[in-house]
Amino acid sequence: MVLGELFPYAHVLYNALMVVYVITIVGTIAVVVGENRNPVKSLAWVTVLLLLPALGLILYLFFGRSLKSVHIISRKDQQRLQAITNPQRLNMVADDQPPINQRLLRLTKSLAQVPTYVGNDIEIFTSGKEKFDALKQDIQAAKSYIHLQYYIFENDVIGNEMRDLLVAKAHEGVEVRVIYDHVGSFTINAAFFQRMRRDGVDAHAFLRITFTQLANRLNWRNHRKLVVIDGRVGYIGGMNIADRYVTGTRTMTPWRDTHLRILGPAVAGLEFSFAVDWNFMKRGLLTLPVPANEPGTVHPGNEIVQVLPSGPTGKWSNISFVFLKAIANAQKCVYIQTPYFLPNDALLKALQTSALSGVDVRLMLPRHTDSRLLKLAAGSYLKECMLAGIKVYFYEPTMIHAKCVIVDDDFTTTGSTNFDFRSFEHNFECNVLVYGREFNKRMKDIYLEDQAKCTRVYLAQWRRRPLAIKAVESLVRLLSPIL
After folding, report:
1. pLDDT of the residue at 220
2. Is 138 in a helix, a strand, or coil?
3. Neighbours of 52 (CB within 10 A)
4. What whole-number distance in Å separates Cα of residue 89 and Cα of residue 112?
5. Which CATH superfamily groups domain 318-482?
6. Phi, psi of 394 (to 5 degrees)
């Protein structure tokens, strides 16, 4: 007995479903084309939707959609926060900076209206133990509030120590607010954060994933790692809250990463970034004063700093644009450390152009990594780099998770941003931009110390990789925009 005899309208239902299906695919293609994105990426999505419509539609729903039309904060609330965190209306351009840096300062003003904070003291941590020892000491000294935001908050030794310390401060009457990324901390039992909330810590997941919101939220991650304590001391960098930075893993010694401790007016920039994310999660508008930026405050240092957030809801790809401008401006050198190297076409060409024009361009990557897939994708770019004269180094001792770009003698940026598509286009990130020779030299010295623990890779050697590895790298590279 055929289906038509059991259900006489089966063919009608089938035709109706096919019409809906075709309209959905065509409509999705129209949306992709109408967004006027990079034509190569748009063409790739159209090709996938045409050749593999069902799979392509699922992939597009999870990885292809844009958040450019989403407002992370209203203009009115943004202005209120700026008035609180920047009451002195600091100069947007430091007039004593060289012309190249002044152009960078003007770029950041156009991108995000971020102020320039003068008179900061910055301590650099390359050891997880030293960073967490200092952070725990600062948290213990907190009197008013603690704002803590991390992509990953592990339920391990350091994670439990930090949780217990935050709970203890909440019991003392200190206001403790915590933002963690739901996907980044997905392996953590819910009871870990429930205990925090039960004991007075206001802890919440950024873009919590639910079944109904899976496609809307899975691809957009908050990768920022920053802390503000009493508006007086701030932390920003690449370290998450996890034992891997302190005691290592089963297969690797403690990860090598970079984190900063900041005293001075720039703490207000970190506070602003946290407050915007807090508001985005519908937790209210934080209107706490920032003592480090009040009139009459003695500035503790000499560093000129900007705090630059970036994310998929912004009009521009803020940090990507700054990287591009800084690399294009380089006269002497560009030193890059990144755990994942998947550059977009513009940044790859900027690096190649600088190297071909005689600039000393160096790229430091981990030999040992936590992601085989990302390492394969990165490998597909290295031949193009070395052909242009870019020096490529593999860090040997352990996983290097540091993220920094050092240009010439007076510009450095570091924070949470990897040199890859995900950080530039899909993640909420935050970097500090530091203008000055003293900090640049300190960071450059650290880079050269790390370089002494590296093996340089030469083009002739790289070309001798097995053909199978090259083929896999090329295939994985096609996935670079969504990795």
Report:
1. 74
2. helix
3. 12
4. 15
5. Endonuclease Chain A (3.30.870.10)
6. -105, 120
Catalytic residue IDs: 223, 225, 230, 401, 403, 408
Place of tokens 């352990």: 398
CATH topology of domain 75-308: Endonuclease; Chain A (3.30.870)
**Nearest by Cα to 456 from 363, 347, 371:** 363
Residues 6+ apart with CB under 8 A from 37: 66
| Nearest CA among 57, 48, 429, 40 for reference residue 220 | 429
Look at strands 391-395 and 454-457 and give their pairing: antiparallel
Domains 75-308 and 318-482 share a fold: yes
- Hey, where are the domains in the chain? 3-64, 75-308, 318-482
3-state secondary structure of 214: helix
8 Å CB contact between 222 and 149:
yes
Question: Tens digit of pLDDT for each residue in 183-233?
Answer: 888 788 888 999 999 999 999 998 776 544 544 555 678 999 999 999 999
**pLDDT at residue 221, rounded to an integer:** 87
Structure tokens given for 332: 């002497």
Q: What is the pLDDT of residues 43-66, one digit of tens each?
A: 555 665 665 666 666 666 556 555
Cβ–Cβ under 8 Å, residues 339 and 401: yes
Out of 212-221, 286-295, 355-364, least confident range: 212-221
CA dist 473 and 475 (Å) reads: 5
